[in-house]
Amino acid sequence: MRLALTALIALTAAAAAAQDGVVTATEGDAPEEAESQTAEPVGPALLYTRELTDQDLARKFRDDLPSLGSVSIGFADRGRVINAVQMPQDPAWIVERPNLAYATRETVDALTQVFRSVHRRFPDSAPARLSHMGARDGGYLRPHRSHQSGRDADIGLFYRADRIPPRGSVREALMDPARNWALLRALVTETDVQLILVDRRIQAVLQRYALAIGEDARWVGQIFGRIVRHARSHRDHFHVRFYAARSQELGRRIQPLLALGPDQNSSALHVVRSGNTLGQLAARYKTSVVAIRKANHIQGRSVLRLGQHLVIPLRSNCTVCPLPPPLAIPPRLLPPERPSSVAQSWVGGINPDLATAE
Question: Residue 64 needs a FRET pair 20 to 30 A away by CA distance; which of 77, 81, 116, 221 works?
């Protein structure tokens, strides 16, 4: 077990170190958050909305949009949400920024499942802390590269004695491995999670803890090889992205209809550059100054800022909007069945000091 543990942590550290040349120090610029440049077709054209014909969908989009439920359009780093759902408050978690706690129904349900799962295992624990999810209509959320299509959430770490350390603290030495592993384990085994971003130093503590309590070494290696990825600017939280099967498929099917309703067609994202004006952008995207002002809550004689992200409501076909490939949710990465002695130790809980930081 010790040799497997050492080898696993060494491999993870080496892989993460190899990425340091391309990872930036601020969360908003983290390239790991991008999705639109790496997406590949993973399924047939239609899986999760078969009961809706194209005619049904067009009618509901035109006449009864709320009946469709949440709709995830585009990608996590180039997208938006229709009919977003707000994450409620609950004894098992705290929503730290309710005005930025909107997402697809699948995302809200997945977070609810995970937080309640951890709360059942640790009923005396402080609630989980949920930070940024997304804006009501999705789109750019400062300072993030992603959080645009209703499938991302930032979850704070659990700390020993529930004492949140000050900025600059060595988080991996102060975090509670038991609760953080329970959180990560629930994400992987109980939800359709797509990826989890967290610093490699946090990963090392969690791997060490998982193996110390008898988790299958091969399965742990698969988690940290496939789902959990290093992001240097994510040392105090998990950045979690979920699949949202129905919402994503609806978004893919609705995207060609967006031109029928200019107020709904706001998938184009423009980063303001030198010389840009509202009139120039309206002409370029074949829309209007009024529509751009409304979509971005621009009032009066507000001056555009270099680097500012603007959502552009389009009136013509959405040719500049990225269209995601067909989606098929992969099977969950479940562990092999445990020996009865190990299973009992998991139910009973393990001393978190078994896996302290190096």
Answer: 77
